[in-house]
Structures are given as structure tokens and as C-alpha cells.
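Review form for a predicted model. The reviewer records the input and the model, then writes brief findings.
Reviewer: anonymous (R2)
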Amino acid sequence: MADLTPTMPRTSPKSPPKSLAPLPPKPALGPAGATAPAPGHGAATAGDPYLPGNGNGGYLALHYDLDLDYRVSTNQLRATATVQARASMRLHRFSLDFAGLTVDRVTVNGERAVRTSQSARKLTITVATTIEAGEPFEVTVRYRGAPHPLKSIWGEVGWEELDDGVLVAGQPTGAGSWFPCNDHPSNKASFRIRISCEDPYTVVSNGALIARATRSGRTSWTYEVKEPMATYLATVLIGRYRRSDLAAAPVAQRIFYPANLAREVAVDFARLPEMIAVFADLFGPYPFDAYSVVVTDDELEIPLEAHGLAIFGRNHVDGAHGSDRLIAHELAHQWFGNSLTLVRWQDIWLHEGFACYAEWLWAEAGGGLPADASAAVHRAEIEAMPRDIVIGEPGPQDMFDDRVYKRGALALHAVRRSLGDDAFFGAVRAYTQARRNGSITTEDLVEFFSVHTGSGDIRRIVDRWVYRSALPKL
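Model under review:
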């Protein structure tokens, strides 16, 4: 997510920790501090204090198969979601994140559920036959209604109607607005998404388009994501779009856009193949099979990343490269956020710090400000801001605060200066390959870089920039 979000109300000033060596251990996600669920009842939370109502316990989702029939003209959805999962405990009751739509039928392993109940954000299912720990199982939910975004402290997230189409922006809690799921990034899964809608519209979703068929004025589009993907990155985009193919190598690159923005889009995204090549050299191979950009005919407050995709509003294209910084930022999220995904939202700096640093690297590669100069400029900006945030523990209100982005990038630049370019980018490339399509924490990054480079300074640098409120010098 690009750093255009208005500054959120800040929480109380945070005192720097007394000791930060070693870094906080990787947590075992679970309903910490909550009353333990009854035996056989999967917890109704992943235990992440930043999203206390999201995620679920007792199982891991392995694959989502979504079959959506949507009417753009009336915003009506009829759908069937099939979730393949594996129990992590003996289960006779468990929950899924789901909100705002009506459930018609639920089956588990082909048997109708004994009982289902819906609260504001959860679908709770009691099974007919107990599922043993370690067993795979399949849940099928048939549902319908008028999907809409969900309210959160970060604004409305999820399924959103455009003036003439649809956009899904699920970060961080919006996936349940359109399909039942285990909506926490620690549970990544593969996807198959099939969407049918009226003929004039183009549908874009994650992964590869594996089938398209038209019948009786309606077209179905089937996409497949083979890699594990976090639920918040799943998206559907519907609009009257043209398509342009930019390049076939090193990965397929395409853009979907409204006809009235053809000239601006052609100019602003002309350097995308070069940008991908630069980042592949710095970060390692692009992690997926293709990269798509969607430009909506609506204005959007901020650009958005999704797995294999980036979404921009018409206000983000001007035909004069005015959004190169944003294009670089969202592209970098394919490595940092979409392939390497945080285990806990507390570590959001790992996504946004790398994406922000990619803006500086692209400027440097294109003959603009060197990263050293960008770092100095942004450090000066942060120095003028309140010192009431620790970016390794920003609190949910400040997850998307600009200081998390900029200070995260400064932490990476400090590591680069300590190691030198060859060692730093060598470690980055090794890290993105070793953790490809996996889950990461700050401790994981520190340990990997320390071992890979043999440097004893990584922990100290990350401690000063990430876990303290005082602003270090570069």
C-alpha cells in the first residue's frame, strides 16, 4: 500500500523498550489473553492483537475455490466457496471470517452442518462428524447478497462498488466481505477464483487466467493462484477495460485501463519493463508468473497492491510520469508483502519499509536522487515529526503511519551502508529466494542477514531504527 494514507490518530506516546537485544521472539499466534475455547471448538481469532477479531484457530486453510455470479447493475452476488483445510486439533466446531452476506447452506465433507450461526464478522459451523487432529476436510458455503466494504479503524475495506464496476481492497481485514475465509496473513493458501458477470465488462483477478467462456450475454473468467497467497491480497476488479501487453520477459506484463486514459497510461507505464528488470537485479527474480496493472476510471485515495497485481486510480496517471514513485512502491510489494508475507501485523514495516526503499532505489537507478540523498531528505522530515512511535510495535492505529514507511526504509539503508552494496543486495536476493512464498518476522530477517553476511551489526542497527523511538543518525 502506498504511503498516501492520511495520518491516523496517534496512540499515546510509546516509551522505548529498556532492552532490545535480542529482538522479541517470534510469537506463536493464538488467542493470547483470551479465555481458552471449549474442547473441540476452534478459536474465533488468530490471536493477533492488531486484529483481535480476525483469523480463526483449530485449522489451516489450504485452498479456496470461489465460484461467484455477480450482477454489476444491481450489486447482487450469488456464490459458492469451497475451502479445503487441515485440522490442527480435534474439531466439532470452528469459524470463518465472513460478513454482510446471507448463508444458504453449509456442508462439511459433504454432510450438512448440524448448526451454523452468523455474527457481525463470523460464520460459526458445528459439524455432523467430528474432525480429528491432522485430518484434511472440506467446507462448502453457498451464499448471496449485496457485498459491501467493512468498517475498520483504517477506513472501509473489502468489496467496493465503483461508478461502473467493482474493486476489492482487502488489506488488512476485508477479505470476509466477499468470501468466507481464515482472514489472517499467517495462513496463506492457493486459490481458484471464477467470476461471471455481464458481457461488456472485463474481470481481472489474481493469478493466471485459465478459462473464459461467454453464454447468454454473460462471461465467466477463471483465475488460478498456485502459490500460497494471503487472503487480504485476493482481489476482483470489474470494469470496461482495454488491455495492453507491455512485455513477455522476464515475466508477462499487462495493463488494463479505461479507453479515455489510453495516452496517459501508455506514457506513465512505458518504463515498467525496465523497472521490473532493475528490481529483479536488486531483489532477485520476480516471484510470480506475471504482473498486471489495473487503472480504474474512478479516482482512488491510494494505489493498492494485490498478489501479482497493482491497482491505481485515474488520479494516479497524468501522462507525465508523475506517479513513478507509486508505481515502484506497488511493484516492490510483489517481493515484500506478497511473496514474503508478515506473520503478524506488528511487523508491517517489513512490507512498507522495503517498498518505500524501492522508491529511492528506482530514483537512483533512473538518474535521480541517490538513495543516500533520499535518505537524508526523509530523515529530516521524520526529525520534524513527533517521536511517539516505535515502528517495530506501532500499534494498530499507526500501522500505516508515514513514519513506519520512511523509518523502515531508513533502517534498510543503514544496513546497506554498514554492509556495502554487494553484501547487502546479495543478502536481499538470497532472502527473497529462501523465503519465497513464505512467512517472515523481523527476527527472521535479522537472523538471516546476520548469518548470511557474517555481520554482527545487523541486530544493533535494526534495534536502533525499528525498536526505539529516538531517531538515529545515518
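Findings: Residues 54 and 112 are 25 Å apart (CA to CA).
Further findings: The radius of gyration is 22 Å.
Recommendation: see findings above.
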